[in-house]
Amino acid sequence: MNRIKEVLEEKGIKQVWLADKLGKSFNTVNGYVQNRKQPSLEMLYEIAKILGVDAKELLNDK
């Protein structure tokens, strides 16, 4: 499980913007945000870099 949705909401960033920055489709990013699929470790670090957070902040510890 990840916290991408919460971080996006905290920062006021839309999924469409993140998808554009990652060069991924909206459906792919939406899958990450809704926890239907998990990003690879490399992708998680890329998302963290784009959002300006530590990768650990994107992970649930549950």
What keywords describe this structure?
434 Repressor (Amino-terminal Domain); 62 residues; mainly alpha; single chain
Give a nutshell description of this structure.
With 62 residues, the protein is mainly alpha-helical. Helices cover 56% and strands 0% of the residues.
CATH class: Mainly Alpha
The proportion of residues forming helix, as a percent range, comes to 55-70%
Number of helical regions: 4
Number of domains: 1
Q: Beta-sheet strand percentage?
A: under 5%
What letter string, H or E per element, gives the SSE order? HHHH
- Poorly predicted runs are none
Major β-sheet annotation: none
Shape descriptor reads globular
Look at the structure and give the mean pLDDT: 96
State Rg: 10 Å
- CATH A-level architecture: Orthogonal Bundle
Name the CATH superfamily assignment. Answer: lambda repressor-like DNA-binding domains
The SS-based structural class is mainly alpha
N/C terminus separation? 8 Å
Number of strands: 0
CATH fold title: 434 Repressor (Amino-terminal Domain)
GO molecular function, one term: DNA binding
Protein name: Helix-turn-helix protein
Pfam families: HTH_3 (PF01381)
Domain HTH cro/C1-type: 4-58
